[in-house]
Amino acid sequence: MPRTNPHLDSGSENAFGPSHEARGWQAGYDAGIGSPDGVPATPLVRVGGFMEAFAEGAVAGNADGGTEGWRLWAVREEGPGALARPPDTEPVSSGETGDPATDFPLAWRSVGPLPLLPMLTHSAPEAHAAWTNQLAGLALRRALAAPGGPEVLYLPVCLQPGHTLTGDSVLDAGYWHGTVSGSFDTDGREAAEHALVRVPHFPGLVRYRPADDHNFWEWLPLAQGDLTLL
């Protein structure tokens, strides 16, 4: 069972969002669960509490990576997002129809808040900006907890850098993205349509399913011949 953020239970949440320690721990955890070579180094920042909590989270994430499985892939906040395919990919189905997902045959275990931010804006536009950095997964899980809410969200994304549109964090990082929805088929078609107009193009779907408070998601690449590198 993945470790949870101990600083979220400290009663430190206020109108300005979670504490520096809560954000630091989650940032460290995200880094640690994607670092099979060892616990990542703590970045130098001005807030001491953030650094100490980052170090704690990095140890926790690295331990979970060794026992729960590494989440080796993340969209970078500054493009390009192209990385080698990790070995622990899994076959997926279309979700809605139950038929083989021939266009999106694999799911890559991934971590990081960047692709979750448009989903959070869509699901909880009132969410305070302080929640949308390291703790997007927590805020998104809370937003989807309402009765009758979707159990899964999809977001078409293109990893080809250099898209010049602006308006949110994913676009500003250089990646195109489409419309957030709970429909695999709808967003799958949108990703495929984008593939027809951009060359080179590396589109796929981000699939989010609540997993405790973590920034966990899955990358479903659109099949385009050899996908060993994206």
Distance N to C terminus = 30 Å
Count the beta strands. 6
Largest sheet: 6 strands, antiparallel
Mean pLDDT: 79
Strand order of the largest sheet: 1-2-6-5-3-4
How big is the Rg?
17 Å
Provide the succession of SSEs.
Answer: HHEEHHEHEHEE
- Strand-pairing-aware structural class: alpha+beta
- Count of helical segments? 6
Poorly predicted ranges: 94-100, 225-230
Q: Assess the beta-strand content as a share of residues.
A: 5-15%
The outline comes out as: globular
Folded structure, characterized:
It is built from 6 helices and 6 strands. It is of the alpha+beta class. Helix 3 packs parallel to helix 4 (136-143). A hairpin with a 7-residue loop joins strand 5 and strand 6 (216-221).
List the helices and strands and how they pair.
Elements (H helix, E strand, L loop, with lengths): L19 H13 L15 H21 L21 E2 L14 E6 L4 H8 L12 H8 L9 E6 L10 H4 L3 E2 L6 H12 L7 E6 L7 E6 L9
Antiparallel strand pairs: 1-2, 2-6, 3-4, 3-5, 5-6
